[in-house]
Each structure stands twice: as structure tokens, then as C-alpha cells.
């Protein structure tokens, strides 16, 4: 007989990325679905990994994080947090930010607690909450009529306040946000911070796209706002920062009581993270300032964003211009495509795009609760963390088959 916990896990099923990657391969489509770079990591990052392997960093790492990496992270983040971070007590290195999400929720959420998730969400959020015995409560971002910018998607504060009760424990935010590409403004964050303090909520701030921002839009960190350092866990990712998603190196930054909770869960998940790759990420971070790397990263992605924005506009798929991350949502309302099954419209549209147009997108209903999945009926998500050649190939197929 299966346990309730096993039943909860099995109920999640196959991820949307598995389905659409398989479909894309089957139809030889240009895959702008799953968000991982298809180009090499920077040479200095690869060289740091070679050096780490060659110099003996091949045994278990310190559980909370390899010393070179946590020291480098403290050096990079102390100025942006406006405080001197203790690398040994206020940083926990995790197996990617996804394990950071899971370990944070396992460490802080008890059975019966409620967790606020802002939709559309990264799909590991609800799974992690449910596996901890918590209850996800879903609050959607709602676009203004005719929204053309990610900034036009906002939380209805009254809707959020109405969802809060004594069981509410944690608010999860993602900024810059996947898949909308929204950077939550200081004004919006201050409102969320006020609510968190009024209701004694913890905040998990997923900031893995922190260095991938556009149009000089400022990325404000929740933990830097008045009264929020004490109640915020901030997540970062080497995968996003250095285009090495396969390395699975992430980190959580928080005051010691919160990092201790994350560490207590982390020690029973992987215990420690890959030592040579931690060494390499530490060495890479030591070089970012002299190389002006973080500025060049955002400039590179802004150019890629603009290639895809131009193509989508050309073919009558109105995009939501992102100010962060590497995703673009498009409005498919006017797309004349068959929808012969009972599956959600966005699912059918993305299958049709893959099979008939030869370009794969992801249906965003996968990032909504069942209650709110209808909000994604007329949108699709494309990613642009691909070589310019791949983006141009996608643009060519779109223009050849969809030009309005």
C-alpha cells in the first residue's frame, strides 16, 4: 500500500518540458521551449573547472558550501545587500536553485501551513510545498488590458490580502520572473514587504535571473528593504549566471536562523554539492568585476531578446516585452490554428506550433493552478537563451509560415 507522501509525489506526473522536448525532437523543430543555453559557457569559467579538477578538489565538500565559493559569494553579495555577509553562517550552497527551493520549504514549512505562490510560477514551487505537507495558495499576476510590457502584469493586492489567514507561513516571489519576464518594482516590493511584516510571513525570494535584466530596469532585492532581511531567504544560481545549468550550483542567502533551517534540510538531501564545480564557480565569481562580465551578460541577452521580439511582432504574435529573465510570452488570440481536442487551448497551440510551424514553445498553463489555468489559454512561452543562429532559424520558420 502506498503512503500518502508517495501518493502526493506520484500525482505530479510528467513535467511539461519532457513532453515538449520529445515532441520537438520528433518533428525536428527549433526548440525555444526549455530554458537552457545551447552555447558554451565563458572560457574563463570552463578554465576554472579544468583547474579545479586538476588541483585535487575531488572529495566531499563542506556541507554548507565549499570555502572558496562561499567567500566569493560573500564578496559579491555584501555590497548589493548593503551588509557584510558571513560566508560561514549566512550562505548555504545547494544543488542548483531548485534544491534551494526544496530545502527552504522543507526546512520552514510544516504540515498544515499555507504558502502563497504567485502565478505563473516555476513548477517546482507547488510540488515542494505539497511534499512538505503544506498547502499552496495561488494568486495570479493579472495583466492590464492590452499589456505589452512585463511591468503591466501585477498582483491584485486586495486579492492577496483576502487569501491570508493565521495558517499562512511563507510568500514565494520570483524576480526577475519566469515566464513573464517581470522585475517586481520597488513600489510593489514595498507593498509585499508591508504585508509580510503585518502577517509575520517569511519570504522566499527566487532571484536566479538577477543579473539578466534589460532596458536599465533596476532589480531591487526584497532582503534589502526595511525590516525584510530578518525574514527573507534569497536564492541565486550559477546555472543562470554563467550559462552552466548542468553544473547545478545554487545558493541561499539569509540570516543565520533561516540558513540553519535550510541547512538542516539540505544535509539530508545531497549533504554536499559537487566540490570541483563549487571551486570553479568561486574562481569565476572572483573574476566577474575585472572582466565586466555581469554587464556583458545582460547586454548579450538583451540583443537575443530583441531578435526574437522583432520576429514575433513581424508575424502577428504580440509579445510581452520582458525586462528580465530569458523568456517571452506572446498573445496567440488571433492565431488561426486548429484546436481539435479537449486539452487546454495553449497546450494545443504549442503542439501545433511544434508540428506544423517547426518552432517549439511551452504552454504556460503548466505554471498555473487548475483554478487559474484558463488565464493561460491565449498565451505561449518562448525562450531566447539560444545561439543567434538558432534564434534566426526560428525567426525564418515563423516568418515563412505565420507572417501576418
* Element string (H = helix, E = strand): HHEHHEHEHEEHEHEEHEHHHHEEHEEH
| Estimated structural class | alpha/beta
H/I helix tally: 15
What is the residue-mean pLDDT, rounded to a whole number?
Answer: 95
At the first level of CATH, what is the class of the largest domain?
Alpha Beta
Helix residue percentage: 40-55%
Q: From the alpha-carbon coordinates, what is the Rg to the nearest angstrom?
A: 21 Å
Write up what this structure looks like.
The protein is 41% helix and 15% strand. The protein is an alpha/beta fold. It folds into two domains: 4-41 and 293-402, Aspartate Aminotransferase, domain 1 (Alpha-Beta Complex), CATH 3.90.1150; 43-291, Aspartate Aminotransferase, domain 2 (3-Layer(aba) Sandwich). Strands 2-9-8-7-6-3-4-5 form an eight-stranded mixed sheet, sandwiched between helices. It has a three-stranded antiparallel sheet with strand order 10-11-13. Strands 1-12 form a two-stranded parallel ribbon. Helix 3 (43-54) packs across helix 11 (275-285), helix 5 packs parallel to helix 6 (124-131) and helix 5 (96-108) crosses helix 10. The longest helix has 22 residues, at 293-314. The chain is globular and about 55 Å long.
Amino acid at each position: 500500500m502506498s503512503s500518502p507522501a508517495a501518493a502526493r509525489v506520484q500525482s505530479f506526473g510528467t513535467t511539461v518540458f519532457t513532453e515538449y522536448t520529445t515532441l520537438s525532437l520528433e518533428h525536428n523543430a527549433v526548440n525555444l521551449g526549455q530554458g537552457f543555453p545551447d552555447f558554451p559557457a565563458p572560457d574563463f569559467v570552463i578554465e576554472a573547472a579544468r583547474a579545479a579538477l586538476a588541483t585535487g578538489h575531488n572529495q566531499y565538500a563542506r556541507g554548507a558550501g565549499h570555502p572558496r565559493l562561499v567567500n566569493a559569494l560573500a564578496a559579491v553579495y555584501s555590497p548589493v545587500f548593503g551588509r557584510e555577509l558571513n560566508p560561514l553562517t549566512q550562505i548555504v550552497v545547494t544543488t542548483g536553485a531548485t534544491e534551494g527551493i526544496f530545502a527552504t520549504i522543507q526546512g520552514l514549512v510544516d504540515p498544515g501551513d499555507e504558502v502563497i505562490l504567485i502565478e505563473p510560477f516555476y513548477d517546482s514551487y507547488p510540488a515542494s510545498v505539497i511534499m512538505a505537507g503544506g498547502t499552496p495558495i495561488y494568486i495570479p499576476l493579472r495583466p492590464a488590458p492590452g499589456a505589452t510590457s512585463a511591468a503591466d502584469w501585477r498582483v491584485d493586492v486586495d486579492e492577496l490580502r483576502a487569501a491570508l489567514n493565521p495558517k499562512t507561513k511563507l510568500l514565494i516571489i520570483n524576480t526577475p520572473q519566469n515566464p513573464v519576464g517581470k522585475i517586481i518594482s520597488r513600489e510593489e516590493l514595498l507593498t509585499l514587504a508591508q504585508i509580510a511584516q503585518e502577517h509575520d510571513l517569511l519570504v522566499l525570494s527566487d532571484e536566479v535571473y538577477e543579473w539578466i535584466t534589460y532596458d536599465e530596469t533596476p532589480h531591487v532585492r526584497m532582503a534589502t528593504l526595511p525590516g525584510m532581511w530578518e525574514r527573507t531567504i534569497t536564492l541565486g544560481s550559477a546555472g543562470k549566471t554563467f550559462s552552466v545549468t548542468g553544473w547545478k550550483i545554487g545558493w541561499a542567502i539569509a540570516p543565520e536562523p533561516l540558513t540553519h533551517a535550510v541547512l538542516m534540510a539540505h544535509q539530508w538531501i545531497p549533504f554536499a554539492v559537487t566540490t570541483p564545480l563549487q571551486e570553479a564557480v568561486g574562481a569565476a565569481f572572483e573574476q566577474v568585476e575585472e572582466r565586466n562580465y555581469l554587464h556583458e551578460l545582460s547586454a548579450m541577452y538583451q540583443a537575443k531578446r530583441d531578435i526574437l521580439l522583432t520576429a514575433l511582432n513581424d508575424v502577428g504574435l504580440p509579445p510581452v516585452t520582458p525586462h528580465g529573465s530569458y523568456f517571452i510570452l506572446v498573445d496567440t488570440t488571433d492565431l488561426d490554428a486548429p484546436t481539435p481536442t479537449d486539452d487546454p487551448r495553449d497546450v494545443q497551440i504549442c503542439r501545433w506550433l511544434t508540428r506544423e510551424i517547426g518552432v517549439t514553445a511551452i504552454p504556460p498553463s503548466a505554471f498555473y493552478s487548475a483554478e487559474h489555468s484558463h488565464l493561460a489559454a491565449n498565451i505561449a512561452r518562448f525562450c531566447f537563451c539560444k545561439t543567434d543562429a538558432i534564434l534566426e532559424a526560428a525567426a525564418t520558420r515563423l516568418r515563412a509560415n505565420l507572417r501576418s
